[in-house]
Amino acid sequence: MSKEETGGLRLIEGGRPLMSDDAPRFVRVTERNERGWVHFDFAVGTPDMFVELVLPEAAFEQFCEVNNVTHMTEEQSQLVDEEVVRWRYGEEGQKHKRGNQSQQDQRDD
User: Average pLDDT over the chain, rounded to whole?
Assistant: First the structure.
């Protein structure tokens, strides 16, 4: 198949998927449970457009290695969360969420 036929994407060659660019890949672990499953967000290109995945620990480690991922920091994760809230609920939703968080912080003190 030509590049035109595949929309510019290079298809699987040699058992490893190839992409048309070297876009960065991001992982954010959201949970590790007692059964050894890792719940995580995986993004290509931009960390705020992600899919939620679940894999056993060994498969997760292999997935991260094969995809040459960058593990997101807490600061990056917080920025992504804020962006998700903004897109999901709009500016009013952000204000409401911030208000609820402030009230929760006061109760925790």
Answer: 79
